[in-house]
Amino acid sequence: MASRTSSPLLHPHEREFDLFAVMSALTDPVRLSIVLQLAAESAVPCGTFDLPIAKSALSRHLRVLREAGVISQRDEGTRRVNSLRAEELDRRFPGLLALVLKEGAQRRAVRPAAPAA
Fold this sequence. Notes:
Blueprint: H1 19-26, H2 29-40, E1 44-45, H3 55-68, E2 71-76, E3 79-84, H4 86-92, H5 96-109
Antiparallel strand pairs: 1-3, 2-3
Helix pairs in contact: 1-3, 2-5
């Protein structure tokens, strides 16, 4: 839940995107899952991500993505809504996001099944 007393959300300007910061943010499987979900949906509130992690861990992953310039966050009432900065990323690094989304979807598709209990 977004707080009225929380610090302002800082987003790097498109010209400040660093390729290595973006790639580093995308190497984590949880953050890649977040990006894949944001690519499929235009805006996702923080509390609706379907991930098996604690809220504090989700907040940290979202912060890493935001600070790298991969996502934007905005407060709407008591919700914090996340969006993929696809247009800015594509202007700064043409083709990078499309490649990440393609490879990420393929990686998700070939994920090994959980062992039977």
